[in-house]
Each structure stands twice: as structure tokens, then as C-alpha cells.
Amino acid sequence: MPDKAPPAAGYPVLYMLDGNAVMDKLDDAFLQQLFAGSPPVIVAIGYQTALPFDTAARAWDYTPPLKTHEPRAGKPALPPRKTGGNDVFRQLLTETMVPQTEANLKIDPHQRAIWGHSYGGLFVLDAWRKASPFGIYYSASPSLGQALQSPLQASQSLDAVRFRGKSLYLLEGDGKARGEPSGHEASLEVLRQTQQQLASKGLTVAFWRYPGLTHGQMFEVSLRSALLHLSGQAALAHQ
């Protein structure tokens, strides 16, 4: 909660998925940097666990129906995680979490934002396409290859009129970690092409590129970029 009076229109607010992991990324020095701008209310959405990630819960909550994959050579088969519950989670978020969080706060609905990384980025993309109360969407390194139908592919035929007042930011690093599955370059190209196609239709969609950063490194950097951008400061990205 910002330690200053809200702007006339209300505070910006950022809802952050994987809330157990995000708070460790926000040290006092960075929070002071946010305070120099128009600092947002920060809402970390986590789980009842001491671990940074509840892998089973996030696999269900953040994803549409996913593809199944054969195990990679030399890798043991893992028990399948239950997936496909993002509509249920989005309803809980929009109908319960958001109203309860903002009940006694002056919030600017146009500056109500959501951030997610990987599966969380996939959730943010899907929420952008569907009815949700957010004006700004930060989708970081979304797991596009996991969905049966990429939300971006489905978005190419959308009516721009329905998206007035919505802004989507696609955040991706172009670095590849050792052992990372193939297809990263293809995902980058999908993001670039789709951003251009959607922007040409009048939708507010931007692509932020982070040279050399891998999927895992994008977690912290994209989170900080979203917070800086929402506070009216420069994001840490090449646009």
C-alpha cells in the first residue's frame, strides 16, 4: 500500500500471480524507486505453502486445456498435473478477490493491472481476451506452446471495439538457457507477428524484448518492468 495520498483518479493497482515468489523480488531499494513515481497498490496472489511456487495449483489455476507431451529422451516421465482450470480461477479473481481487495481503497479502474509469468503469462493472455476488470495486462514469457489453442492465435480474429480501454504488454527475453526445450525462437516470432497484427487492427498491444534474458530470468525483470511502467517510469525493456 503506497504511503501517500491517492491521485485524484485513484491508485494504480497491480495484481501479481505466483505471489509467494514475487515478494522476495521487491527489496526496499526498488520500492523506494517506485515511490518516486505514482506507486501502485501491490497485490500478491499466492497459495498456502512455504514454497515459492505451488506447481500443482498454478498448473490448474493458470492454464486452459493443455497439450500432452511425450517425455524427452533421457528424462523420466513425471506424473501429469491437472490443468485447464483458468476459467474457474478467473471467476474467483474477478468476482471475489478484486472486490474484496479494493473495498476500502480508492482505485483507478483504468490503471487496474495484472501480471503473470510463464503459466501466469498464459493466464493473463487468456484473461485479456475474455471478460475481466483489468485495464492493463502484462504477459511475461507466456507458455504458448502448452495450450491446445494459443490465446494469441484465437485473438487474431477479435473485434477491436471490444478491446477499447484495454492495453496488453507482451514481455519476452530472447536468451535460451541450457537444456531449455526447442521452440523458443518460434514463440518469439509468434509474439512479434501477433503484436503487429493486433496493433494494425487498432488494439493497444506492445511487445517488449529483453536481450539475452532466459525464461527463468524474465520472472524478476518482467515484474519490475511492469511495476515501473505502472508507476509512470520507464520499463526495463527494448520496445
TrEMBL record:
> Which Pfam families did the record assign?
Esterase
Q: Which GO terms describe its molecular function?
A: hydrolase activity, acting on ester bonds
Top class in the EC scheme: hydrolase
Q: Can you say what this protein is called?
A: Hydrolase
| Species of provenance | Klebsiella pneumoniae
Family statement: Belongs to the esterase D family.
Keywords for the protein's UniProt record, in alphabetical order: Hydrolase
For the keyword Protein biosynthesis, the answer is no
For this protein, the Enzyme Commission number is 3.1.-.-
